[in-house]
Write a structure and sequence with these properties.
mainly alpha, 94 residues, elongated, 2 strands, binds zinc ion, two-stranded antiparallel ribbon
Length: 94
């Protein structure tokens, strides 16, 4: 099974980091944050069996975590400053 370990880390860390933020956490915003963060983080593909996935991720966390968290926090700030869900509402009203 080929997976992007960094993507798994973002999926795990984004909800945790979001708890500390008083911003919109709707599906649109969280998906946007995920997309922006992942576009800015180099993928780290690993070939792993399903059961080994979290062991691999945990072993990657100490050195990778800081860079990834910086990108996640940047994405949270970007999206919460310009949430797309609002644009959608505006279009509906127009
Ligand atoms: Zn939202």
């Amino acid at each position: 099974m080929l997976i992007n370990a960094n993507e798994e880390i973002v999926k795990l860390r984004l909800p945790e980091l979001l708890k500390e933020y008083d911003c919109c956490k709707c599906e649109t915003c969280v998906s946007d944050m995920m997309a922006i963060a992942l576009n800015n983080i180099k993928p780290a593909y690993v070939n792993t069996e399903e059961g080994m996935l979290f062991k691999r991720i945990n072993s990657m966390l100490p050195q990778k975590n800081t860079d990834i968290e910086i990108e996640i926090l940047r994405a949270i700030n970007l999206v919460s400053g310009h949430p797309k869900h609002e644009e959608r509402f505006e279009k509906k009203e127009a």
